[in-house]
Amino acid sequence: MPPETLTRAASSAERVADARPGFRLAVFGLLIGTATALLALVHITQGTSTVNAADILGLLLGNDDAETAAIVGASRVPRLVAGVLVGVALGVAGVIMQSVSRNALASPDTLAVNAGAHLAIVAVAAVGLQVPLLGAVGVAFLGGIGAAALVLALAGSGQSGSVRLVLAGSAIALAFAALTQTLLILFAQETRGLFAWGAGSLGQSGMDKFVVLAPLIGVVLVILLLKSRSLDLLTLGDDQARVLGINVRGTQVLAIVLAVLLAAAAVTISGPIGFVGLAAPAIVRLAAAKIPGLHRHVALILASALMGIFLVLGADVLLRALVGAQSAVEVPTGVVTTMFGAVFLVILAHRMRTSGPTREARSVSLGGTRPGAGAVVVVLLALLLVAGTVAGLLLGDAKLLLGDVANWISGQAGPVVSSVMDARFPRVGAALLAGASLALAGTAIQAVSRNPLAEPSIIGVSGGAGIGAIAVITFVPLAGFWLIAGAAGVGAAVAAAVVFGLAFRGGLQTDRFVLVGIGVSAAAMAAITLLIVLTDPWNEAKALTWLSGSTYGRSMDHLIPMAVALLLTVPIIGSLHRAQDLLALDEDTPKLLGIAVPRSRLILLVCAVVLTGSSVAGIGVIGFVGLVAPHAARALVGSRHKLAIPTAMLLGALLVCVGDMIGRTMIAPAQLPAGLLTALLGAPYFVYLLFRSRLTR
User: Fold this and answer.
1) Residues near 472 by Cβ (< 8 Å), separated by ≥ 6?
2) pTM of structure
3) Would you say residue 416 lies in a domain?
4) Which residues share a beta bridge with 638?
């Protein structure tokens, strides 16, 4: 064929393609619809019974097999339908939240909608209220809409707003999770079964939820499709949308309310299934760059719904394929989606362009307090810590007197006092050492990263340490504490290497650093839950202890690794106080003043990892101490690390000690983990920091 003919044919094909802009869109829809349908077919063939694909095919062809029909109708179809409804609800909720907030990282997870809905449902169950299914949706909606309103109020707009939104959502979600776990512990009988459900499970006992909630989800979906043109115009900006006749505020409020209602319905069906609402629309938006017409909301909503189904069913299919149908019964589907979604968040963060830090705290400067004032603050805090330590020794399920403690120290106490003090002294010591360790680690991490909102639990180091410790406890039941502590250190080191390796690639960008850390932290928490459920599915106390942080059952042996870690790292970090002052300023100043930046960063990070690993091995995962203590220290004594370091350590030790004491006395003889109390105290302070930084933008 002559070249001219080939050229004319190619040009003709291009004109046809241009004349049919919907061709690629139709092909994309067909592909994702077909893939989802095939996945659904695979999904319905999986289960704990011997019913296979041939049996189901025979049932479809008219074979009268009552046993097969009963299994498929009572178990597999409800699970499949639940996956479809949840996928649609979360996928559409995510895309609407992203469009209205103009934030690519908005989702039911990052807006804390899932956490708020979960807390509301658990709270209602805890007080013994019995509500119908639609009533449960209403309860979840109220919790979710309250959380979303708070997060959106704290998050700004623009690129830095993306990071602020995730930070605010993460803080509020952690606080809500702490409240939820507190209720689960306090009202164990009333909330039985809600712990595993809280990680997101597709297991259903029938079609009741489908009958009630499918019409609700369908009506919301139709309303959003009818409002798709208004949503398209919102993307042009508020002013231009108003010129074109759009009620901007009314459209935004309606869209957010409907999106939260979808998320609430999903939580009611299966519990909070993580990150589907983030990943599904994000994947579709990536495809929209190459597919004309996919950016319009009528297509975007439908495609996100299909992608949500694909992700939920895909996670369930993959889970049962990897661990077997019997084991998968105990593993919440949300654990798998959270792990994949966290990886997706890390990828998004790594691709994201940032223009600078989230908000470098205004207190990060070389200014200090008046001479002598800092020393007075340190002395006063030391006295408060002594008082807190004494109170921790005296108070608990059994009240003691100072004379009892003095007799125990001198070896003259009776058997009752000796028994109490032998158990209580290691707990108080563990709280003090862990608090000081996490505060010191947080101070170092904030200086290295130049991010005032970084701390070991938020950036995933605590989660990595938790994975290491729990892996050894699970697979080596007779392991000594030193092996557990070593495994925690290795886990913390791996997590830190991943976070800092990705964040520092191409230069330090603190926005990227925080987002990568949050993704790694979410993946680590999901992996911990997965490990516990697969190996010891009935031991919820084990999960709650490690995920919440507890001094229960500590002995003197547990104190040794934390004490050794502090003895090794305090002199090193203290000797680098001037380097930390300069590292916290910018990238160039320390180099100009002769600081070996890479070497100093590496040393500080290694110390932070050692401190975090030892504290997690000692009392589990405790959040916000590494954030609150350094910030409060800078507020009290200024930004110079020479004073900020000891102040932060005293504050951290005091915070965990007081939290542990309250947890032991508030509902004695029952107890609350210290990590729950520190989260409840630390999360509001974190929210305050975000709010203050927004005002100073």
Assistant:
1) 479, 483, 484, 487
2) 0.77
3) no
4) 368
